[in-house]
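Researcher: Following up on the earlier apo prediction. This time include the ligand. It's zinc ion, with the SMILES given after the sequence.
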Amino acid sequence: MNSLSRSHFRRGGFLSALLPISLAITLSSVTFAQAGTASAVSTRNTAPALTATEKKAAARVKLETIRDITTTLSSPEFEGRGTGQPGADRAAHYLADRFAKVGLKPAGENGTYLQAIKFKSAQVLPETSVRVGDAALKHGEDYVILPPYTSEQVDATGGIVFAGYGVVSRELKRDDLAGLELKDKVVIILSGQPDGVDAAAWKRATNPQVRAVNIFGRGAVAMIVANAGTSAQPFSTIANYLSRRRVSLASAPPPMFKVPPVLLLSNTAMEKVFAGSEITYAQTLEKAKTSAVVSRDLGKTATLALRIKQEVTTSNNVVGVLEGSDAKLKEEAVVFSAHYDAYGLDNGRIYPGAADNALGTATITAIAEALVKAFSTPASRPRRSIIFLSVTGEEYGLFGSEYWVQHPTWPLEKVAADINFFGIGTVVYGPVKRVVGFGAEHSDLGNVFEDVVAATANVVTPDPMPEENAFVRSDHYAFVKKGVPALMLLGGPAGDVSLWIPRARKWLETDYHSPSDTVKPDWNWTGPQTLAQVGMIVGLRVANTEAMPMWRTTSPFNRPRNSLKSLPAN
Ligand SMILES: [Zn+2]
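Model: Understood. Below is the ligand-bound prediction.
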């Protein structure tokens, strides 16, 4: 899934507006605890059984293909398939080759399986240094630099001034900057809020732009934000993500202003900043919470030498098609999508992205293989065409899927539906019996989904973590925004969903978006095989139905395909 939920950073207040990326990992324990009570629901009592043709196609979905591709893509050779890195290039060519071998036709650009996208990347270099007084701080541990990075080289030196929460507000009768000289200083402010303040007024007063203007407008050369972590999202988590290489579309406009650097500091680093003062950082923070005045010149100097490597790179979506058999309907297509990128090679570490999302990539390739084999003559194929789209750039912001819907290699008005595969590994816990269809309630795909789940002796399971708003956080959402009905499928084993919880929680803490997201020996490969079968049959039914699926009229996503009408912000 695309980094962390936007909601987590919204709560972060100050950080949210400064951070162009969404960032929040935690599928919280609360979320999962609630999921434990989830039970099967189905609004339909009778589901048509699988047809002989569907059974034949399902039997062609090979577990070995899923295992082989997942294992290959997550092997060191592919270096975590980082967008714009050589490992992702190797993965794109490997997938194009698999699509060709399976028997799909190229459906990328210029008669190839590839669609090239230009990206820009930025990485903090090891020669970057930040010193406060005598202490050298460590990037990624003691501090991180808030994006956007506006220069490859930033040097700043100044006396350190601690400015409390940095809030200037008549409404709150508060001026944390009163009496402080900020010109040419490195100014530290606190994130969070004191006890007992009016939350709404505080929110108004801590608008990040206003605080930045207050501080930089007084001539500060750099800003440091302390107390940025929360219990839901500790500093170590924020630092883990913000210290990574950053990737965005090359076409994205550069920042409008060159803002002086903004750093986030850990509590440990803040104690180093306060070392030698008559009061510790922890004591200062306690005092600040009571709204006591804590602003002061710390009588120390900070020296920042930031070195950022910026590059323009290319990464590819991979697209193949199985042409339909109906003279008219073959102009329309059902899309199976999955992102193949992971976090690549970053700071010397490989992020293999096995469950997220080599597994999904392998799944759509296995579906392609099964369909080509099951429908070996052109006349026997599904009526509509079926596109297999493996996208890049998901981890940094759904870029590959967004790019495809903006520059579709198949007319978007003629894309019947998108069926997306993304997971957090629950699909390999055992034989799959439960299937979550994210987005099912929004369109005709819901009925097809429920029928297929029932006909394959599986159980429709509600979204186990609705707070995570997963429907807007993976590649199918790019389609949804452009009016194409979509489903994201997630599988899990039989039994109460609460049985998944300890394992999922542990995986999210230790392996998700981490170097340890590798293929594990205890994975049950029949799980993804079953999920592939369910998704494939949903796709087949959509491909063979006379009319393309429609949005429910009551759905907030209801709009014509390729609509320019923008959606409400997620
Ligand atoms: Zn991810």
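Model: The pocket of zinc ion is lined by residues 1, 356, 395, 513 (CB under 6 Å).
Researcher: Noted. I'll compare it with the apo version next.
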